[in-house]
Design goal:
By secondary structure, the protein is of the alpha/beta class. It is built from 18 helices and 14 strands. Bound molecules: nicotinamide-adenine-dinucleotide (NAD) and uridine-5'-diphosphate-glucuronic acid. The site of nicotinamide-adenine-dinucleotide (NAD) has 27 residues, from α5.
């Protein structure tokens, strides 16, 4: 079959960019992205395309190309479901905060709501595509809901996990290492549905990079990929601590190790800890699934990746306190960067939140500068932890518009995000305007150690 109308439920970091690229590459298909969040949809429809709700290099141009032609953003979920031949579910699947599996399992309530809504509305056959990251075997639950509450129409369920990384979403979507499509390979209808989705990606992705598997392999591959990626970061971060006590340099170690073609050079950058909405949640979910099958050794193995990451964030903050003569009470600490990585305005699970919280518990005064994150977001992130009254966060944390303002008269600076512009800062002037000794903690190994020491900074970097 040829798909003419696509609906995507969820206009977030995945739904928005993914559907924009599909619409741009497939002008003959109408793509409607729907969301319950009216503010978000209004932002996607903002006349000024630079005001779309997600900052991603290159995304505004793609949206400008397709929006109003064959790309639409709407809050009318029922209408979009009704019209569509293919429905992507791209809603959030965060860690559960209540009940069984609290703090570990993925919360599937939004997924189930989507399934029930699709079942209620659909009066013609639909291909339903899991775009969200889901526990293995979720497709079975979706099928049960759709078949038992629907109007007797046929639903084919596909798994098509998304591998884009934030900050490079458009590039990743245009040139994916692979597109993964899982479906029912045993029936003609299943194979037809898979082919319909293959045909969409084949508009711009070489056939060799489009991989088809059974649905369970596809669901599990997504959790596995994120677990492997996060494991590399925790592995190099574990080595960074060893480097600091032995005089080895973690960048040199990473380079030497990464030149082994069996290991490879990517994803070996030591840091203050990985953040982002997915690594932690997906590994916790994997741990939960393993435990639920009684596979305790498997669960313990992967849990260690998270424990190492928590340790890395904590020891970075603790080192600041220890180095500043065991007290930061009343001291001004400048945090450069709040986003969980550069080139995104996303702050979910950013290491900066936990480092700031640690320092605030020690009564530090924090000044934050991030080129893309709003003041409102920074306070929301701290308030969400519930460590102190909201007013206290506003009293102790100031958010400013330039790195210069953030660093003036600071006791210490902590580089939290690897924004390119932090390399270009006039560090000489920053040094002159700080209190002495001027402490600089580089959580991203971004700055030239020798240059910073020559300028007079007391300089500490993750992994030396
Ligand atoms: P997000 O929170 O940015 O977006 C999800 C959107 O879905 C929200 O705007 C929410 O309002 C909307 N929504 C929830 N329930 C709805 C409903 N019933 N009807 C209509 N709209 C509804 O989340 P995201 O970052 O785009 O992630 C979505 C999924 O993709 C998650 O499963 C995530 O694990 C996965 N994923 C994310 C990334 C990433 O880089 N962020 C990458 C790959 C995969
Ligand atoms: C990650 C994966 O890279 C994507 O493939 C996946 O689709 C996505 O999760 C998801 O499922 O949500 P993302 O979290 O957007 O993408 O960004 P990454 O580039 O993976 O970075 C994650 C965190 O690890 C960041 O805090 C980053 O600074 C940190 N990191 C990454 C390191 O500390 N060192 C590295 O070498 C790489």
């Amino acid at each position: 079959m040829k798909v003419k109308n696509i609906c995507c439920i969820g206009a977030g970091y995945v739904g928005g960019p993914t559907m924009s690229v599909i619409a741009q590459k497939c002008p003959e298909i109408n793509v409607t992205v729907v969301d319950l969040n009216e503010k978000r949809i209004a932002a996607w429809n903002d006349e000024d395309v630079d005001n779309i709700p997600i900052y991603e290099p290159g995304l505004s141009a793609v949206v400008a190309d397709a929006r109003g032609r064959n790309l639409f953003f709407s809050t009318d979920v029922d209408e979009a479901i009704d019209k569509a031949d293919m429905i992507f579910i791209s809603v959030n699947t965060p860690t559960k905060t209540y009940g069984i599996g609290k703090g570990m399992a993925a919360d599937l309530k939004w997924i189930e709501l989507c399934a029930r809504q699709i079942a209620r509305v659909a009066t013609s056959d639909k291909i339903v595509v899991e775009k969200s990251t889901l526990p293995v075997r979720t497709a079975q639950a979706l099928k049960n809901i759709l078949d038992n509450t629907g109007n007797g129409v046929n639903f084919q369920i596909l798994s098509n996990p998304e591998f884009l990384a934030e900050g490079t979403a458009v590039d990743d979507l245009l040139k994916p290492d692979r597109v993964l499509i899982g479906g029912d390979l045993d029936t003609e209808k299943g194979k037809d549905a898979m082919q319909a989705l293959v045909d969409i990606y084949a508009h711009w992705v070489p056939q060799a990079n489009i991989l088809t598997t059974n649905v369970w392999s596809s669901e599990l591959s997504k959790l596995t990929a994120n677990a492997f990626l996060a494991q590399r970061v925790s592995s190099i971060n574990a080595m960074s601590e060893l480097c600091e006590v032995t005089g080895a340099d973690v960048n040199e170690v990473a380079k030497a190790v990464g030149m082994d073609s069996r290991i490879g050079p990517k994803f070996l950058k030591a840091s203050v800890g990985f953040g982002g909405s997915c690594f932690q949640k997906d590994i916790l979910n994997l741990v939960y699934i393993a435990k639920s099958f009684g596979l305790n050794e498997v669960a313990d193995y992967w849990e260690q990746v998270i424990l190492m990451n928590d340790h890395q964030k904590r020891r970075f903050a603790a080192n600041i306190v220890k180095t500043l003569y065991n007290t930061v009470s009343g001291k001004k600490i400048s945090m450069l960067g709040w986003a969980f990585k550069k080139d995104t305005n996303d702050t979910r699970e950013a290491a900066s939140i936990y480092v700031a919280d640690y320092l605030l518990n020690e009564q530090a005064e924090i000044v934050v500068y991030d080129p893309k994150v709003t003041e409102e977001q920074i306070y929301a992130d701290l308030d969400y932890l519930g460590s102190r009254p909201d007013e206290e966060n506003r009293k102790l944390v100031k958010v400013v518009n330039t790195s210069k303002e953030a660093c003036n008269e600071a006791h210490a600076i902590a580089v939290m995000t690897e924004w390119d512009e932090f390399v270009e800062i006039d560090w000489q002037t920053v040094y002159e305007n700080m209190l002495k000794p001027a402490f600089l903690f580089d959580g991203r190994k971004l700055l030239d150690k020798h240059k910073m020491k020559d300028l007079g900074f007391k300089f500490y970097a993750i992994g030396n």
